[in-house]
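Title: Prediction job returns without error message
Component: structure pipeline
Severity: low
Priority: P3
Assignee: unassigned

Description:
Job completed but the reporter wants confirmation the result is attached to the right record. Sequence as submitted:
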Amino acid sequence: MVVTFSHENYSPKEDNMKLVFHTGNNPSVPKGTVGIAVLNEDIDNHARNDKWEAVIKERRGRRLTISVMIPVDAPIGMWEASIETSYEDERWSTKNKEVDLPLYIIFNPYVSTDPTYLPNQAERQEYLMEDVGKIYAGTSDALKGRPWVFGQFESTILPAACHVLESARIRAGERANPIQVARAISAMVNSNDGDNGVLVGKWNGKYEDGTDPYKWSGSVRILEDYMRNGGRSIRYGQCWVFAGIITTICRALGLPCRPVTCYKSAHDTNKSLTIDKYYDQDGEELRGIRGAPGISDSIWNFHCWNDVWMARHDLPEGYGGWQVIDATPQEESDNVYQVGPTSVEAVRRGDVGLGYDTAFVFTEVNADVMVFVEDPRSSWGFRKIDQDTSHVGKLIVTQAVGQYSEEPTDKDWEDITHLYKNKEGTREERSSVMRAIRGSGSAAANFYDQPSNSQDVFIQIFDLEKCSFGKPYKVGVYLHNRSTQDRTVKVVLSSSSVFYTGVKAHLVKKGSGQFKLKGNEEEKFSMEIFPEDYMSRVVDMCFMKNFVFLSVAETDQAWSSEDDFVLEKPDLNLWVQEGLRVGEIFNLEISFTNPLDLHLTKCEFNIEAPGVVKAQEISFRNINPGEDVKAVIPLKARNMGKSTLMVVFNALELFDITGTKKVSIM
């Protein structure tokens, strides 16, 4: 801070000076919302970081350069400051000068006494300083990194982050606590509580009155639109958008943060800590009926949330470090749509009694799937036919430290599943599940001891990792009768388009058959799906679900399985010349091949590079079937530095095609 005296030089023997800082409504010293730093003449360096302190770093005539030490327990956010001066002990001479510009205090993960201290330098760089990264989508067999511009250093972002904090249900004095700050952020990034949160979530595919979630390529435009609209919520977002915005806000506020993707993430709606599926005797999944606990449970193909790093002095030793927060509105916590901060270590151990929301996060990553089928002989109308202990939480990933590939399918991700759960099927993993079930008081414990019917027909579904968009695929099952007796087998096959939340959008094709399977006989049963079957029925992100239901008449064996995969689309190839200079116009060349035998209409490119190219939307002509497309778009480099150029292409018939390119502006 530089202070200039208006009339005469500063005299340490005659002039008194103190700096007064305040934040929030009705600020006071006891609440920690007023800080007073008296100018100390006796030292030229700060001796401690637990109190407000001001020292002179340089004197030049009437100008003083002052360094202010802010205590680590000061609330973060926007502060105001004033300078109070007086002459010796004469109170009548006191003058007060307000500092015109707002001041921002943020967490400091570089200082060991800060509750957000992160000791690893490479991790600090990745989780605090990187302004472009990836959020992972696809499936556990075919991961796809979705580039995202966090843009936390854009001039508009820190004021927006502070506005979010000030709008939250958190008092100014509580903003020194990263636990309360993180929880408030998870609540305010969604708008489901009528609190004018940043983003409206929507999952039904109807986005005409807003922006399709897959069209967003970064957080900056969302937060700028939010502030420009007077803090009115922006439409629309889904989990990866919520995770991207949280990453931006947390990094802007000095809180180390990373987006996390869990493949096969469970959503438990009745706090049983299990996922419950119900079928009729013909293999149709039942929804919305009475007397079936957890019938609204679901398993998302993937779900994104955030890890934030902090100490947890409110929990027993060993539960600090990475904590889950999630802004995607799924279930209420303390009557608000928010999650966390949840200790990742508590989730791994199954310690669901530790706050916040540990049981919910545990279920997301490690719930068992209970499968029930209608049975008129049962007292409650259903019998358990299967218990899958390894379907949920197939893989949990985040971007690897120091890694970023311009190819979306490259392995620039880190597998962090082991932080959330012990190895699947081990004694430690099963113990944590039972500890969680018993600790929650879940009635699902009663189903863990129920025996299953005899299962002498071995079944395996055809597993598709991926299929190219516009090509045919098959749904099928392999059968092996391991008994010496004939078996009467009924098989139901279906393929549907699904939202990434696992909810069925449209049935594409269904078939069934009944036949005799002789003793020790092996057989395959399959059905082919052609592009004309699914092209008009695909929805966001092109997820498909193949489903198989099988029943054996002689043994009452019943079995169901599903396989999720993505219809794979092309990537954008980007090229720019080297030696770009600030202020100059340069050409961005974009190329890809239309994989469809259809015209692409209402085409557009969304382009941005944080700090270098402002986010913009550019319309493009119609594209012919099978055409090799080349677009040349002029852009202006507005600042020097290195950045990542990101482009998203959308058309009515083909959407969410992405590409990235690192650029350097001199």
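Comment from assignee: result matches the submitted record. The first strand starts at residue 2 and ends at 4.
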